[in-house]
Design a protein that fits this description.
Strand content: 25-35%
Radius of gyration: 52 Å
Number of strands: 17
Order of helices and strands: HHHHEEEEHHHHHHEEEEEEEHEEEEEE
Helix content: 40-55%
Number of helices: 11
Length: 496
Amino acid sequence: MASKTLSTSEKNPKAGVGLSSNLEKVRTKIPVLSHLPKKLFWIVIIVIVLASIGIGAYAALSPAKASTTTTTAALQTATARQGDLILEASGAGYLVAASESSVGFTVNGEITSLNIKLGDTVEKGQLLAQLDDTSEQTALEDAQRALLELTSPEAIANAELAVTTAQANGTTAQIALNNVQYWQNDALIQDYYAKYVIAKANLDRVAQIYDDLNVGEYINNSNEAQAYQDYYNAQKAFDTASYYYSVYAQKPTQRQTDAAQATLDLANARLINAKDYLTALTSGEIPANATGSSMDALRKAKLAVQAAQEDLDGTKLYAPISGLVMTLNTKVGDTVQGTIMTIDDLSQANIQFYMDASDWSNVKVGYDVSVSFDALPNQTFSGKVTEVMPGLVSTQGSTMVEGMAQLDNSVADIGLPVGVDAGIDVISGQAKNAVLVPVEALHELPDGTYTVFIMKNGTPTLTTVEVGLQSDTFAVITSGVAVGDVVTTGIVETSK
């Protein structure tokens, strides 16, 4: 399952480090070459090497100098051709459905009807099975009745009364706070002091009149009665004025101020709660951040109805997706809760695949794939990689690349059951109708550019080229070489 691609160094072992280290020594020994740019230096060196090889070959083959034991060197060549180059990594896997759904009841109960059997094709939203819902129906009715009591006309009238009462309590609390704050009013204190002085003077005046009459133990006439009445009223007025002056003449304590403010805050909070609750009852919507014991009871009643409805709905089982019933482990009369079947969506075919760890860099999301099945010889199916695990996985004692590919066909189109084994090729790159040369013809320079020697009139001519895809045998030339050009691929030592 290893990849069919190789790195640049593996494809052209003759280019690069070894040649570079030896020829750099040449550069230091030839002063003229040392002044050349680095890239031009390399081109000149390669030309010199090949030229010297050609001269040696010519001298060795010349009749005037040939001997029966002369050793010669010849250039190996190849012709650039047009073709396709595909880089791919091979692996194995198995057919899986686009998705699988485990289907079951959320409540416990006895199955009263089962509308499907193993292997049936179902549609999304189709009723599959149903439980006995007697207890769920009763629970829902009880919850609805409790909510109705909280939202009845009588409950709404009480809520309106609560708002009115809270408003009155708020007004009273505001007055009380104002009174406390008035104690700190100097003008008010002066007013009460003036009333106190007037009441004291009036009391002294009528008291003198009463004393002058020398009223005895009993009142004997109307003058004495009037004097007593005036004296009594003046005393009451003085007592009242004295009280209020004594109260307002001193500042209120912090405790008195805090208590009055807290009473007002509590009254306002209760008014807000009363209004929110009335709004909830009349509109059916609970205001955001609403509080209070009445609101809490209303919330719980609504939640109880919702939970009871969900339990009742849970007694019916509907298909969450369209697909094929793959497993079914119950029958009518069974008491169940949880998963009772699985449904596979077969509208799209996927391949769960595994490849050798060395293919990690050759498997990416979006790469094309070609898939074949032993059960369907001479047929291939195309698709794309849709998922690659972020790390290597261990399976059957081997470290592998795990991924998922989606085919362009449905499981029904393929005509095979899910789980069947498959072979897969992940295509990491391909070039159609490209100019191809053997990788041995490439010479990579230190700056990363490539050159090749093209044979022109029997002489190798150095040419800079642009290289595309490379496999372990061929490279795509995108510029610099034409189809039919003869390129050198190495030097073959021969003897004559």
